[in-house]
Each structure stands twice: as structure tokens, then as C-alpha cells.
Amino acid sequence: MNETDDLLRAIANDPTNKDLRLSYAATLEDTGGPHARRRAECIRVQYAVQACRDLYISESHPGFQELLLRETELLVHAKQWLTPETRDLARSNCSYSWGGEKDYAQFRRGFVEHIAPRDLRALPRLLPALLEQWPILSLTCSVWNKQEARDVLQRKGDFHKQMIAALDALPENRFRELGLWFAEPATIERMLPKSGNLETLILYSPFPGALREIAKAAAQLPALKALQIRHAWPVDGSTAALRRELLECSETVLAEQLEEWSVAHLDSPGVLLDCLSSRQWKQLKRLSFHRCGIINSGGLLHLATLRGITLHSLELKDRWSADDPIDCNMLFPLQELLTEPIGWMLRKLALKQLGTMGGVAENSFCDGLESHQQLYNFSCDEEITSAALAKSQRVVLGRTPPLPTY
Fold it and tell me: Higher model confidence: residue 244 or residue 296?
């Protein structure tokens, strides 16, 4: 066994050790040919990309754009770095792209770190070999088409049995990120014994009772820092139940330890703002509401009155379509929010799909952006055509700190 094989085994056994990965990159650069040097560069570039995201660097920044472009160019070669077991994981999957959530094997920091098996039934058989070969830290248990989703909602098929079998196969305390589609209370119960080091939990369309189970078991998730609830429409139509469970979560010790809270597709702004009014959010740094109606409900004014929360990143993406514009008059409290404690340390502000602004609303909005000295990442979904807003974005981007390198 040569030095690179020893390093690969060490990386798989110690998946969070950055020094081992960078040592492997240095070894490839010193001893390998063009193919090995591309692999080494991929490791360094992906570390730099992740560091930029951790620092909230805007993807509009030219230096970050260059990094992302180079990452894409290098990942064209990623199929050559896969092992037979990794390919087997996705034998029935037609996708070989590398950037989306449903990629069966996603490279992060130069190695396969995230897996999303096309067939969950294969995971218990393949997982031991995969964990020996790769520093896998993230798993998504997903449905893969609309028919599978309909079957789950109609209580057909055995998706939940497959997901529980997959969770049972996980080694204790290995995984840092789990994504679960249509999680039930029983799913959460089986997940908990394996989750001592879990940092990020992503729930897609959870069944009633799943969030309550998480709230009850907060003490068993001591490392959890990020809770994301996506496609949060209740799968049985019980909106009231989901609202109650969100409020219950906000009153537990779980809220005290969370640094990131994200909710998507739940048009209940009052409930979400009531959750934030809890005094439990002592560590919250990143807040994201997608299609939850926060801005049009006057939520910016409510956010500005909150105490005990200091955000680094705020994302509000209200609109469902171009025919559902944001009421720009509701953006007036932005300047107040940025001067209150909740916004003092804000580095990133994403107000997606703003629609057309003008007049007093735009002037107030731009004044708020330019006066906040900590802010260096502002974005919206569509192209900015307003000269005033484009100028403000340039001012904000000009405050970007130096980009990290590896």
C-alpha cells in the first residue's frame, strides 16, 4: 500500500479532518500526473468555495465567480474518481451532474461526501464499502418522481420501511447532515440513536408529529445547528398541526442551540414571526423564509422589534410567481431593521423576486443598504435594472473581505 492509499484510508476514517485532505492534495501534486493534479486542485478549490459560503461571500463577486467556474470545470472529471460501489449506488439513476440536490454522489471538499441513493433498498448492502472508501457525512433519503411521492402520500408502497432500514444501517455518530422526505414520528425515533453528531437536519414535507418528536428529543441532538423545513405544506392537509409543532419547537432547548432556521412553502407568516418572538433563539445567525409571505405581511417591521437575536444572514423570498409581486411599501422598515440589534452584524441580505420598485420606497431601500457597513452580500433573483439599486449593490459588494485560498 502506497502513501496515497494510506491517506485515503485515513480520510475515510476521519472524515472531518481538513489537514488529511490537504495532505492528500499535496501528495498528488508532488507525485502525480495531470489527472492527479486536477484532483488535487479540486480539493483545494472546493475548500475555498465552502469557505466563501461560510463567510457569506456573494456569488456576484468576480473572485468567487472564478472559483465556481473552475469547480465546474474540474468536476467534469469526477466520474473518473468514483469507485464501483459509488456507481452501483446510482445504477438506475440517469443523472451524472454534480451540483443538484438529487445527485446520487456529490463531491464536497474534493471527495464524495453526500449520497442520495436512487434505491434505498441498496443502501444497507453498499454502505459499509462506501464508508471505507469515502468520507461520507451526508445522506438524503428521497423520493425520485411524482408517482413515488403520490404513493407515499396515499400510504402505498414501502418507502418508510426502506428509509427506516437505511437509517438502521448508519453507524452511530458518523453523519453530520441528514435529509428526510416525508418523515414520520417513527422515522425520527429511529434516526435519533445515530445522530449524536448531527449538525444539519433537512425535512421535506414532514408528516404530522415529526417536528414534535424532534422537539421532545432535543437533548439527543446536542450538535444540531441547522433545521431546514422545505416544501412545508402539510402532507395530510393539517396546516394547524404543523403550525402548532413549529411553535412547540421554538419553545424548546432545541431553539437555544440552533444557528440556522429555514422554512419554505408555508404561507403562515404570523406563526413564523410568533416563533421568532420566543426568547429561546440565543445562537441564531442564519434565517431563511422562502414563499412564506413575510414581507407582504409587514414582517420586516416585526423582525426589527425582536431582541436577543443577532443575524449574519437573512433571506426572504416571498413571491410565488411574477404575477404575485412584493408590496414594495413593506420594504420601508429595512433601514430600521439594519440599525436594530437583530441586523447589526448582518453580512448577507437576500430579498428574492422584488419586482419593480421606485420613488420613496427605492430611496429608503438603497439608503439602508449603503449605510450598513457590515453588509457585503446583497442579492435578488432577477436582473437589477434600477440604476440606484445597481449602485447600492456595487457599494455593498465593495466591502467584501479577502477571499480565502487553500
Answer: 244
How many domains does the chain contain in total? 2
Confirm whether 282 is domain-assigned: no
Three-state secondary structure along the chain?
Answer: CCHHHHHHHHHHHCCCCHHHHHHHHHHHHHHCCHHHHHHHHHHHHHHHHHHHHHCCCCCCCHHHHHHHHHHHHHHCCHHHHCCHHHHHCCCCCCCCCCCCCCCCEEEECCEEEEECCCCHHHHHHHHHHHHHHCCCCEEEECCCCHHHHHHHHCCCCCHHHHHHHHHHCCCCCCCCEEEEECCCHHHHHHHHHHCCCCCEEEEECCCCCHHHHHHHCHHHCCCCCEEEEECCCCCCCCHHHHHHHHHHHHCCHHHHHCCEEEEECCCCHHHHHHHHCCCCCCCCCEEEEECCCCCCCCHHHHHHCCCCCCCCEEEEECCCCCCCCCCHHHHCCHHHHHHCHHHCCCCEEEEECCCCCCHHHHHHHHHHHHHCCCCCEEECCCCCCCHHHHHHHHHHHCCCCCCCCC
pLDDT at 291: 85
Inside any domain, residue 64: yes
Q: Which of 79, 100, 123 is the C-terminal boundary of a domain? A: 79
Domain of residue 33 covers 1-79
Domain boundary among 79, 105, 140: 79
* Residue 95 predicted with pLDDT over 70: no
pLDDT-derived band of residue 102, with 50, 70 and 90 as boundaries? very low
pLDDT tier for residue 338 given thresholds of 50, 70 and 90: confident
Band of residue 183 on the pLDDT scale cut at 50, 70, 90: very high
Q: Average pLDDT, whole number, for the chain? A: 85
Is residue 335 domain-resident? Answer: yes
For residue 390, pLDDT beyond 60: yes
38 part of a folded domain: yes
pTM: 0.91
